[in-house]
Amino acid sequence: MNVNVHVRAGSSLFYFGELVSCLKRRSTQPRVFIYRCRGPESCVCGGLHTAMSGSTSPPPSVEAVGAEGCYPPGYKPFKPEEHGLERGFRCKVPQEVLLKLLAGLEPDQADGTGKAGDQASEFGQQLTGPRLGVGMDSCVIPLRHGGLSLVQTTDFFYPLVEDPYMMGKIACANVLSDLYVRLWVHGWIKRLLPLCACMAQDRERVMPLMIRGFRDAAEEGGTSVTGGQTVVNPWIIIGGVASVVCQPNEFIMPDGAVPGDVLVLTKPLGTRVAVNAYLWIDQPEKWNRVKLVVTKEEVKEAYQEAMFSMATLNRTAAGLMHKFQAHAATDVTGFGLLGHANNLAKQQRNEVAFVIHNLPIIAKMAAISKACGNLFNLLQGTSAETSGGLLVCLPREQAAKFCAEMKSQSSGAGGQGAAGGAWIIGIVEKGDRHARIIDKPRIIEVPPRGSQAANQDNSSPSPAPSPNLS
Q1: What does the pLDDT read at residue 19?
Q2: Is 229 in contact with 148 (CB distance < 8 Å)?
Q3: Cα(390)–Cα(410) distance, rounded to whole angstroms?
Q4: Nearest-CA neighbor of 362 among 446, 267, 463, 455?
Q5: Residue 244 · residue 2 · CB < 8 Å
Q6: Which helix (H) or strand (E) holds 238?
Q7: Are the C-beta atoms of residues 276 and 90 closer than 8 Å to each other?
């Protein structure tokens, strides 16, 4: 089967006040800082500007970047509450709002399950085969010829880690992840790349690193970059459109969960918390909120773990889903674990509910989330993830085997390392097509790779003893 992934620029969503990003390529590479513009409102940057450390010609109307931090001297981070917005405001559209906006795109409902039926058009009635549309991570569209289907997805985001090379890998992994929840893909990638209008002098050094990271991740996934298109944008946005044409028996529809199934998660949670906590190290006001529960070294280790986790392809999990007869799956990204679990539950043919008992979280990130009140809502399951793991519904008798093989394969070169593997996090029971996290879930502290704790075998795939999960 062949895959086309179109990487393009466009309107995207990110944590505006917290992830104003700085990019750097190790200590030997130029550092690029992205921060708020102090120039006129008509500035083309749209409110953001970039500057390369050591540059003799910084952007106009912007103060020089401080030597020790990502922000210029006197910079005041964006606080939503100071602008008449709720404290939890993000440019990420809330899930309930997004679903309302997308409601008009749904075809007529064929039954009462909440699943989309065949389109009322004559063309739609001529198509046969499984169909999946609005609201899920990828769409499945039956084609007119040969009993084939098109599986397609799109995704975008702004840079959120310091390293341009790793940012390229994360972007590719994130785009491909929406296909991995359906099938084990091979083929090629076409790239549409935004060039930042505000960094004409610096992009020749930064963009090749992002391109190389994207290419390397594609090759790791068994694909190759064969071309693309370049556009200009006020700031960097990277994402893409991934497509694959395949036979129906080559992909898994996300609607087959049955009571008694087990829920498995293939990457730890807490990437957003780790990225933000890392930025807070140089922001005393915010660091003071968490310094009693975590050290700077622990935050740096968690940040590195989050970065490598986000850059890890979900390809291994995709292959094992087919081997162990998975009934349904989705990837955990912008709406958090609970948001995507709810989305998946609504797609089920059977009247089921997902009950989550365990939360595998990058070590110390749960403590940071608690110290920050309702800023992240990590333990409530709504904290956004980037390029997160797969949430898989597996037959009970297959779940432990899936987890064991995930850990074995992930420990190899390019895998998730000591922190890798998968965790049984819940069960599928009869219900009304929704998901919930129990009142006191078990927190599984996942040690970052390379840490002292990671050398111990703390990543057993089995959850704590429970009458519901035994």
Answers
A1: 33
A2: no
A3: 14
A4: 446
A5: yes
A6: strand 238-246
A7: no
- Confidence at residue 140, expressed as pLDDT on a 0 to 100 scale: 83
The phi-psi region of residue 226 (left if phi > 0; otherwise alpha if psi is between -120 and 50; otherwise beta) is alpha
- pLDDT tens sequence across 23-51: 333 333 333 433 334 444 434 344 444 43
Pull the structure tokens for residue 91: 């440019």
Residue 442 to residues 274, 437, 446, 456, Cα–Cα distance (Å): 20, 10, 12, 19
Read off the tokens for 50.
């970039």
CA distance 79 to 179: 36
CA distances from 36 to 84, 124, 431, 442 (A): 19, 48, 48, 40
Which residue stretches of the chain have pLDDT < 50?
2, 4-75, 77, 89-91, 109-129, 133, 413-419, 457-468, 470
- Rounded to whole angstroms, the Cα distance separating 135 from 201 reads 40
Q: What tens digit of pLDDT does each residue of 255-270 get? A: 999 999 999 999 999 9
List 43, 91, 196, 393, catalytic entry? 91
Which DSSP helix (H) or strand (E) runs through 218? helix 203-220
Catalytic, 198? Answer no
pTM of the model: 0.74
- Taken in order 417, 419, 424, 425, the sign of the CA dihedral is negative
- Residue 445 CA to residue 415 CA, distance in Å, equals 19
Instruction: Give the β-pairing of 352-362 and 423-430.
Output: antiparallel
| pLDDT (0 to 100) of residue 145 | 80
**pLDDT number for residue 382:** 96
Q: How many angstroms separate the CA atoms of 171 and 169, rounded?
A: 5
Nearest CA among 361, 354, 371 for reference residue 437:
354
Side-chain-facing half-sphere of 300: CA atoms under 13 Å: 6
Place of tokens 């704590």: 464
pLDDT at 56: 37
DSSP for 343-411, written as a single string: HHHHT-SS-EEEEEEEEEEETTHHHHHHHTTTSS-TTTT----SS--EEEEE-HHHHHHHHHHHHHHHT
Query: Which pair of structure tokens corresponds to residue 287?
Result: 């660091």
Residue 99 has a pLDDT of: 58
